[in-house]
Specification:
One of its GO terms (molecular function) is carbonate dehydratase activity. This is Alpha-carbonic anhydrase domain-containing protein. Belongs to the alpha-carbonic anhydrase family. With about 180 residues, the chain is mainly beta. It has two domains: about 120 residues, Carbonic Anhydrase II (Roll), CATH 3.10.200.10; about 60 residues, no CATH class. It is built from one helix and twelve strands.
Amino acid sequence: MRRLLEPCWWILFLKITSSVLHYVVCFPALTEGYVGSLHDNRQGSSAQVRRRKASGDPYWAYSGAYGPEHWVTSSVSCGGRHQSPIDILDQHARVGEEYQELQLDGFDVESSNKTWMKNTGKTVAILLKDDYFVSGAGLPGRFKAEKVEFHWGHSNGSAGSEHSINGRRFPVEVRES
């Protein structure tokens, strides 16, 4: 068991991301139950859902014609209030002692050949098939880790993170689920 005791912003970031993902059903590239190729968006007009050639997943982006305000076109569950990406504001963030100690179990053991990586076109996902667990840091139990995703920008120094802190996006973001 490896413990990370050093208080860092990423522990808060991981906790908030985990909490948001617990309540957020919407993540267009990973959401089950997509709406068909034609679907009414929030404004009531029909829109063709563009799909990725390799995977068939609906195409989405963080801005422009396929940005977050249009994600509902690909999946009706993306039309709610608690949606990703989120902007974490310092003045609303609260750090308690219970969030300082994140426990990672099994991550110090060499993985089997069942663990593999997948490039989704927007992220690289490491699909964890062995027993990896996350607990502590205020989580309400011990959770099996199934995937680690990396989001990055188009070039070094570009804003590739999905979420932001005080409106600032970072070159890379790691998300565990």
